[in-house]
Amino acid sequence: MSEKTYPSLEDVIGNTPLVRLQRVLGSDLASRGNVLLAKLEGNNPAGSVKDRPAISMIRRAEERGEIKPGDTLIEATSGNTGIALAMAAAMRGYRMLLIMPEDLSIERAQTMKAFGAELILTPRSGGMEYARDLAEQMQRDGKGRVLDQFGNEDNPRIHYETTGPEIWRDTGGEITHFVSAMGTTGTITGTSRFLKEQNAGIRIVGAQPAEGSRIPGIRKWPEAYMPRIYKPETVDELVLVSQSDAEEMARRLAREEGLFAGISAAGACWVALQLARTLENATIVFIVCDRGDRYLSTGVFPA
């Protein structure tokens, strides 16, 4: 009798579904031959696209001999990366210190703690910039190692190796446009590099917040804090999305498609719809970064 091999939790990160939206395009845009596809990254074990770089950064740092189980890892996070790193640290035996602005959703903080991570909350006024500065100071003080999602090439590398190839495979190479929210920029940078190698004509579009908008997961960084992994040449176009448009799209996706998505994912969908209004026979893929249940306490969804 042969021994059956079962996958570990790490083995099931990635290979997320790519699904066609049925109703939000409307008959007019659909009649032009446009197809709108959502890549459901909320199906990853810890619930977001950040599962991919989290396990990539830890595993490759281990391979290089930079860290070993039992060490303390530090990261500044707005939520999803922290949750993913908390999961990955639990899987591989690390102490995880996460630094997070105090105004982010309670669900995110509770989920990080559930995985055993320790949280340090920073003032809302300092934003992610202050959290990043504190993480670097803690590393200088010898309190642990910063993985640095903003400057670690193992972040976009995993999207080059997995997210891009999955999209290319699942569309049969028919993708014409790729849309992603821009925060850390690892997803759009790595995926773009792979897709452009397959077909330089694929348009890469980044969603950024309009002036005055606070959309979890979408950031427009000051120049001094621009993620070092970001390569501007990998993005063909930047489109601004307002907080109100992103939040309304999140509600529409749930009501009209049965797709319970986070606000940054909805922002990317809104951008994809704007593109569809100007196109014909386009295959537009956007990243659904996470699930909507991570935002219930924010009031975006009706009580």
From TrEMBL:
Read off the lineage from the record.
Bacteria, Pseudomonadati, Pseudomonadota, Betaproteobacteria, Burkholderiales
Q: Please name the gene that encodes this protein.
A: cysM
The record's listing under PANTHER family reads: CYSTATHIONINE BETA-SYNTHASE
Catalytic activity field: O-acetyl-L-serine + hydrogen sulfide = L-cysteine + acetate
Keyword list, A-Z: Amino-acid biosynthesis, Cysteine biosynthesis, Pyridoxal phosphate, Transferase
Q: Which residues bind pyridoxal 5'-phosphate?
A: N80, G183, T184, T185, G186, T187, S264
EC number(s) stated in the UniProt entry for this protein: 2.5.1.47
Mind telling me which CDD domains this protein's record contains? CBS_like
In the record, biological process GO terms are: cysteine biosynthetic process from serine
- Transmembrane portions of the chain: none
Residue ranges annotated for the Tryptophan synthase beta chain-like PALP domain, each copy included: 10-290
Q: Which top class of enzyme applies to this chain?
A: transferase
- Tell me the cofactors it needs: pyridoxal 5'-phosphate
Name the record gives this protein: Cysteine synthase
User: So what family is this one in?
Assistant: Belongs to the cysteine synthase/cystathionine beta-synthase family.
N6-(pyridoxal phosphate)lysine-modified residues are where?
Answer: K50
Please name the pathway. Answer: Amino-acid biosynthesis; L-cysteine biosynthesis; L-cysteine from L-serine: step 2/2
What molecular functions are annotated in GO for this chain? Answer: cysteine synthase activity
